[in-house]
From TrEMBL, chain A:
NCBIfam families: HDIG (TIGR00277). The keyword Transmembrane applies. The keyword Cell membrane does not apply. Residues 235-430 form the HD-GYP domain. This is HD domain-containing protein. It comes from the Bacteria. Residues 257-379 form the HD domain. InterPro entries: HD/PDEase_dom, HD_domain, HD_GYP_dom, HDIG_dom.
TrEMBL record, chain B:
The chain crosses the membrane at residues 36-66, 73-89, 140-160. The keyword Membrane applies. Pfam families: DUF5317. Keywords: Membrane, Transmembrane, Transmembrane helix. It comes from the Bacteria. This is DUF5317 domain-containing protein.
Amino acid sequence: MRQKTNYAVWIKGIVVQIGFVIAAIYIFYTSSSEWAVREHWGVLSTYTLLTIFSCFAPVRISNTILTVNNAVIFSGILLYGVWVGVWAAVIESLIIAFLVRFNPLKAIINIGQLLMTIWTVAFLKDWIEGFGTVSPIISDLFLAVVYWFVNLILCGLGISYFHQMTWARTVKMMAKGFTSTYLLLLILAGVGSRLVESYGPLTLIPMMIAFITISYVFHHYYDNLQRLQQKVEEVKSFNHNFLTTMAASIDARDRYTSGHSQRVAYWGREIARDIGLSERKVEDVYIGGILHDIGKIGIEDEILNKKGKLTPEEYDKIKQHTVIGYEIILQAGMFNELLPAIRSHHERIDGRGYPDGLAGDEIPLMARILAISDAFDAMVADRPYRKGLPVEEALQEIRRGSGTQFDPILAEHFIRIVQRLPYEELQSIIGMESIPQKQLQEAIR
Amino acid sequence: MLLDVIALSFLVALLRGGRIKEFPKFNQIKLLIVTILLQACAVFFPTIGGLFISIAYVFILAFLVFNREFEDMRIFLIGWFLNAIAIWSNNGKMPIDLVQAAKLPYDLEPVINGTNFKHSVLTESSNFPFLTDVIYMPSIIPRIISIGDIFIMLGAFLLVQRLMNKPISLLQLREGKSYATKN
């Protein structure tokens, strides 16, 4: 396998470093003879001006800046042919080479891919014109798509070689980023070229104004978008801090169950993943696990930390923690999706649980998952007044409760998850006082 | 020769609120002095003037390279580089297109009989004709310019903005960040 990968990289290297360079030199050379023709000099100087203009009037889209150079090149190909496209590309490359840090190999490879794109589009244009019957609208649209596609594929090849990624992944990533704007620019270039063809070069003025306006609108649009994204990030980070504090305060409140919430969250997440829930739902289950006992904040210390057996009244009070937690989260107005987990994680499949006596499928899935995680952790964790049960026995208990206390399918999944884990890893999870905060933050990111 | 462009640039810079406070410090000013001396030599020895001009271009390019941290200098560099290709490949003189030059109100006699120290006549045998003086620029001062001159004018404009403490940054134009195709 490794051998094969090396082989592929090697071939890619040859194609990019030698193929692209040879293509660049060949296309440059064949075009330069066209530049020597006296009648072409006016066009060359016009396209020099256009290229300079477009180099310094970039269009900004979310995370990247797209120059309108490709539009200029494309219009050159449509109006005059491959030599104008090549000229504009060469001028653009010169500007880039002189203005940014210069890497000769990368520069020539980049111009190689651009020239091959230009050559392909010009070749197809001549081929379509050979039919004589194709409407310019259709052919321009087709050529715009070809330009985008060939550019994407060749560029992707070069980038994937230099950044050591797979070709397909690079192309996919690039296509996702800027396809719509790219095609929009090329189509505008096509329209502009046809206008210039019919009404003369003065039509460039309204076209330029259109470009500048588009650039301006995009600029503002993405500025606002960026600001909004920043705000969302802030809110998210606030939520994370809030949750971390919550989890810490729950655990601090009940000194016998240090780390309990996080272990329940951990097991809940494992079950949720195992039954194939979406990443978002898995995350919800995790946070639900963190917060499931939040209502214990409202239970008196004497009861919560009492050694020995609880009286029936005290036990009733403990049971209140589900409802108290529910009320707290409801009032907070955040994490509404976690309400069922907090209220119903002590419900039983047979309907004998609390606080609402729900049965079977009436109990929300998240609560059914957390019920198993909660019970398991309560059984195996060491408490100051007793040692935790061995894992096998705890699993036996879960098996016994399957169908009465626990959802049988989830219980089966859970038993499998635990049995799959190597002994040492299992012990380290059970013995964990509290999972580092970093992991919590990662989980809810 | 760029007087109108420079004057216009100063006007724009003034309108943008620019004032000269301090002069930017350029490196290796002596290279510029050497260039001027070489050009003067070309005037006095027109027969081997081409050689002096060719060498003068090496020094100008070197001066620009030493000052490349200024972005406007890099624009100059492109222009001078394109002009240098035309001059180096045509015996040290910039060929000028007589068809275009005929529109100018100047006497073209020295160019035609080869005594002009800087220009020669563009012919079929000239190399890189598209980089020579072939574009007629009607205003403000009528002249024939080359493609390289377009960059030099732009560079002059940007440089004047910098002198007036209102530099126009081209920093946005950066590989990777600026070019989607290279991202």
